[in-house]
Amino acid sequence: MVDDSLKQEIQSAYSGFLSSKGLKARYGQRLMIAHIARTLSAIPTDEAGQRKGGKPLAVVEAGTGTGKTLAYLIAALPIARARRKTLVVSTATVALQEQILLRDIPDIIEHSGLDFDFALAKGRQRYLCHARLDQQLSGGGTQNQLLYPDEVAAQPEAQQVKLFHSMADALARNTWDGDRDQWPDAVDDEAWQRVTTEPAQCTGRRCSFIRECAFFRARENLLDVDVIVANHDLVLADLALGGGAILPPPEDVIYVFDEAHHLPDKVINHFSFQVRFFATERWLEQTLRAVRGMAEQLPQGEQRALIDGLAGQMSALLELQREASPLISSIVNEGLEARGGGDVLRFEHGIVPDLLRRQAGELMQACSGVLAEADDVQEAFEEALDKRSKQIDRELLEQWLAAVATIQRRVEQQMGLWRNYQSAGEEENPPLARWVKLVEGLSAAGDMDLCCSPILAANTLISTLWKRCYGAVLTSATLTALGEFERLAMRAGLADLSECAVVPSPFIHQEKAELRVPAMPCDAGDALAHTEALIDMMPELLRQERGTLALFASWRQMLAVYDGLEASLQAQILKQGEHSKHEMIKQHCERIDQGEYSTLFGLASFAEGVDLPGDYCRHVIIAKLPFAPPDDPVEQALAEWIEKNKGNAFMEISVPDAALKLVQASGRLLRKESDSGHITLLDRRVLTRRYGQKMLDSLPPFRRVFES
Predict the structure, then answer these.
(1) 627: nearest Cα among 657, 651, 605, 601
(2) What is the pLDDT of residues 635-671, one digit of tens each?
(3) Which residues, in sequence order, are bridge partners of residue 475?
(4) pLDDT > 90? residue 152
(5) Is the Cα dihedral 141, 146, 147, 152 positive or negative?
(6) Bridge partners, residue 227, by sequence
(7) Do 535 and 682 contact (CB within 8 A), yes or no?
(8) Measured between alpha carbons, how far is residue 419 from residues 258, 354, 416 in Å?
(9) If pLDDT is split at 50, 70 and 90, which confidence band does 537 have?
């Protein structure tokens, strides 16, 4: 139950916003505000202000046009301030992040009566590293190449040097704060890589430039604001560091995850491991030479002995990896041959062969030895910096410390992979996915990626986030699949922790849009016949509206349909792969503005996050039900686990996933309440298969025309 003072503050802010802008309340928006306020207010809190149990997660599916940002800020901010928590708003895309920062929050502050401070949180690599800039300008490129052999070439080009001098001048004049996004011109990635740093390479408070550090200044600014706008990757990176390294500690945060349907996949990517085997061997060789080079610059003594010890452990790891190479290559080759070829060997149920498991155990122990020595070297270098030792030049010492940190990061990644490969997968529930992917084959120029990944994000989210945070809001236009939250609950670990709700869209779908499934001579399961049918039908479909978005399930079919059309139709099509997504949309809109016909041919990335209101999109063509291709090792492992536990992977995974993607694709049509148009689905399985009706029921209530 929301207490009276908070209820009054929320209601006053909402009514004030509507009145100031001359708007009427949206029913779905009101329901969303109420659901979030009730859930967050009901969180039990101890005397220290920390959560003690309860259901801290408010999950809300709210369709396009609901006004989600206003709803969750109006509802959550007063509660966060009353509980003395920071509100962290996290998005999956830059476009939504910019919208919230540049439009939504300023609009709410101006019209709602809520007065609050906000800031944007970004990762370290969006900021310039003063130490790296100084190294580039003082001719330290050669030293950088020694310490970071797999990074950019040693000496910057003349144009880059000119840019770096301009940056140094702007910093000196206080006309730039070191934020890449605030530099007046676009900065080439290679040039920027020279003057930024990864967390592992940063010496932190021991750096000579700590007082000027752009990242730490930005980090300190986050401590005094009410609302922090971030992204899912940054939140997960902070959690991977233990929480509180970049953002406030989770215990002091109420999170809002907008575009929350992306969160489980982001978690899987963040907590997976990958080692490119032969590239890692080459990195070890290069880095070992660099470490020995460090030792040669030191007199005999404790520090020299420690670096020699690190070199010895790295040499042992390198030798062990060389010995393991033929064994692992043989296991992979034999496994692929037994499966009839291909370039991906997935270990069934996540269980690797005993020989590889034993080899992984030895490599894990060798990595552990490197890390133990690296920790000692790091401690010695930090002590030397703290004592301002005159034995080693301070700048060189800082570079060495950053190099050791890089070694630690790279070896920790290797150790994580080997640890997961040597464990007994039989006891994991759910199991990890483990696989090897060939890169250009096992030839002289080839390599292989050894990979390991969770198949569900649930356990990771529960342990690192849901059990720690004070509260969270998860929202998106697509959180349910087949009308239920089970898919999200399984993937994100929401069971017993969440209160879920679906609020209605303000769009009148029956009046504004039509869903048409035309008669077709074939089943979409017959790939060749279906593609021929699309080629025959596409000319008529592309002439119905000036602005059309055609979505395909595969590159092969999209290119085949395009190639099968006459030149006059090809001229009106902008197909994915020819230009960037941003450039395609720009050209498309320009054509429509000039009164021309224009069609976008795209894949899954165009089925989400594409905003084409009004005439820019009056017709959405969906070539095929968006079932995922059965070639992703993580999804294969998930399906295998479900089948092992007497489930039906197709009905529990494939159909809900495809239904959600179908909703996302159809959502490209109506972007504003004034929009109208039609959707053509060229896949009659939605009418002929038993799962089809469930998919149709999960769609918004469009007018329906099914041809026989």
Answers:
(1) 657
(2) 999 999 999 999 999 999 999 999 999 999 999 999 9
(3) 60, 258
(4) no
(5) positive
(6) 87, 118
(7) no
(8) 34, 14, 5
(9) very high
Edge-to-edge order in the sheet of strand 447-453: 273-276, 447-453, 433-439, 344-346
As separate numbers, helices (DSSP H) first and strands (DSSP E) second, the chain gives: 28, 18
**Sequence letter at residue 355:** L
pTM higher than 0.70: yes
For the stretch 230-233, contacts whose Cβ atoms lie closer than 8 Å and that sit 24 or more positions apart, written own/partner, are 230/88, 230/89, 230/90, 230/91, 230/120, 230/121, 230/122, 231/90, 231/91, 231/92, 231/93, 231/94, 231/97, 232/90, 232/91, 232/92, 232/257, 232/259, 232/262, 232/263, 232/266, 233/123, 233/266, 233/270
Pick the closest to residue 642 from 360, 384, 430 (CA basis): 430
**Model confidence at 431: pLDDT above 60:** yes
Q: Is 460 helix (H, G, I), strand (E, B) or coil?
A: helix
d(CA 428, CA 442): 31
Neighbouring-strand partners of residue 600: 549, 574
Q: Which residues is 436 bridged to in the sheet?
A: 345, 450
Contacts of 229 (CB under 8 A, 6+ apart): 89, 90, 91, 97, 100, 101, 105, 118, 119, 120, 121
pLDDT of residue 445: 65
pLDDT band at 444 (very low <50, low <70, confident <90, very high): low
Tokens encoding 287 = 């880095």
pLDDT higher than threshold 80 for residue 31: yes
The tally of CA atoms less than 13 A away on the side-chain side of residue 126 is: 13
Find, among 276, 313, 277, 310, the residue nearest to 293 by Cα: 310
- Run of H or E including 660: helix 655-666
